[in-house]
Structure formats: structure tokens, C-alpha cells
Design goal:
The chain is 66% helix and 0% strand. It has eight helices and no strands. The C terminus is likely disordered.
Length: 144
């Protein structure tokens, strides 16, 4: 469970940008933390970026509900806004450290920005596929 200050930080961030908080900030924090804490995708920066984009979907949807006019938002503005919310959600966790390769890479971050603006337009990415488990491998090998 996230401390109440995380939800309050999100409310303040939305209010400071002229929005009306959509509510259920604690549920948002829980969902995003769950998505970003998935440890099954730690083998590459590309996989991390994919999981990060998927983890940001609830944030973008929350921001859409919190603002009546998002038409003027560009990818850079929305990317910075999402990053601000991710920082709040990631407080007291290892999320910021885990996704540092995505945050610190201009190439990865540009892809994140393009994808979050796409989510705002209704292009929701599918959940990333997890790596094959030992049971999956056995089934594939045992198949006739």
C-alpha cells in the first residue's frame, strides 16, 4: 500500500497543471507500481522500455480523465507530465533506479513520449509478453 502522500502529490501535480483530479489516486498508484514492478523483463533496455510504456497507460488514462482539454498537449509535454507522476508513484521503491536506462536515454525516452501521446489518442499497447517459463519450455519440447 502506498503512503497517502503519494496520492496527495498526484493531486497537487494535476491541480498545478489546471486539472481536476479524477480520484482513486491510491488505486492508480497500486496499479502502476504493480505493472512497473514486474521483474520478468529485466534482460534488456528494450524490454524495460516496453514494460515502462505499458506501466504508464493507467497514468495517461488518469490524466485524460483529470483534464477537460488535452488537445493542445504534445509528446514532450505529456512525457514530462507522466514522468512527474511516475516519480511520485516510484517514491520509496526501486522503480526509478530500475528504469533509469529508459529515463537517461534520449532515444528510449523519445519512444516513450511517442507512445504515451499515442495512448492519449486511444492506441493502447498490449501487455508485454513474459519470458518463457520452464513449464512452457517442457510443453514445447514434449509436444509431438
Amino acid at each position: 500500500m502506498a503512503p497517502g502522500t503519494v496520492g496527495q502529490t498526484i493531486v497537487l501535480a494535476v491541480s498545478a497543471r489546471g486539472g481536476t483530479p479524477a480520484g482513486r489516486e491510491d488505486d492508480l498508484v497500486t496499479e502502476v507500481r504493480a505493472r512497473l514492478s514486474d521483474k520478468s523483463h529485466k534482460d534488456s533496455e528494450l524490454a524495460l522500455r516496453t514494460v515502462f510504456i505499458y506501466g504508464c497507460v493507467p497514468i495517461v488514462e488518469y490524466l485524460r480523465r483529470s483534464h477537460s482539454d488535452t488537445a493542445g498537449w504534445n509528446a514532450t509535454y505529456l512525457g514530462e507530465y507522466v514522468f512527474e507522476i511516475v516519480k511520485a508513484i516510484g517514491s520509496r521503491t526501486r522503480i526509478s533506479r530500475r528504469y533509469a536506462p529508459v529515463f537517461d536515454s534520449p532515444v528510449h525516452w523519445a519512444v516513450v513520449e511517442r507512445n504515451v501521446i499515442g495512448v492519449l489518442s486511444g492506441n493502447i499497447p498490449a501487455a508485454p509478453a513474459g519470458p518463457a517459463t520452464a513449464a512452457d519450455t517442457r510443453r514445447a519440447v514434449d509436444a509431438p
